[in-house]
Amino acid sequence: MPNDLPERRVPLRVLAAGAAKAVVSTLAPLHQSRFGQMLDVTFDTVGALRDRALQGEPADILILSDTAMRVVDEALPRTLRVTRDLGRTGIGLAGAAGREPTDIATPESFRDLLLNAHSIGYADPARGATAGTQFARTLDQLGLTVRLRDRLSVFAFGVDAVSAVSRGEVEIAVSQATEIVPRPEVSFLGLFPEPYQLWTCYQAATLSDREDAKAFLDLLGGSEGTAALRHSGFVHSEAA
Fold first, then answer.
1. How does pLDDT run across 32-44, given as a tens digit for each residue?
2. Closest to 172 measured CA to CA, from 131, 109, 113, 126
3. Is 167 exposed, middle or buried (0-12, 13-18, 19+ CB in 10 A)?
4. What is the dihedral of CA 151, 152, 153, 154, to 10 degrees?
5. With contact defined as beta carbons under 8 Å apart, do 66 and 86 qualify?
6. Is the pTM of this model over 0.85?
């Protein structure tokens, strides 16, 4: 496609879940250099972006959990043009840089770590945060909601909680692994153990027929995209 087409001068509008932030941020400059196309990206929780898509907010690319994507597809038939699986990620814990990974492979060790933490940050379940919602549910299942209440801090996004760890404002943050693993200023302490883990599969879809939107999905599925997904903590959907 010639570079002087009007389409090339209009940025691609991308609505992306926070779990994919590292991947999109890595690939955006590559897409621009290769195709001469800038990305206008909005990151938000899965629930918030699902609702914005359902309300008809204009966008060219949507990146959500597969469950939320199905809701959009069922409510707005034929809106999703091309869909690509990105893989899945689990929920984990972030600690200060240099802190060693923690053995939280069993419910008992996981519960002990939470009880011994001075402060814990997580994303607001009321905003549709996947990890935050699962963590609140987990606290109830472990019987820790009341005991830890004074040590909990709620953030708008999981990445905000992770950033708070890097600044020393909270000891531990709960977020998707993909929002922790690629960040060198914190340590990835480990994944939630079963039965408290929630694996979430993510997908990207084009919402318009723009060729450059399809090109970005091809980039996500190519070698650079695969490497960026793996580096940020995504694994193949069928992997444990």
1. 998 888 999 999 9
2. 113
3. exposed
4. -170
5. no
6. yes
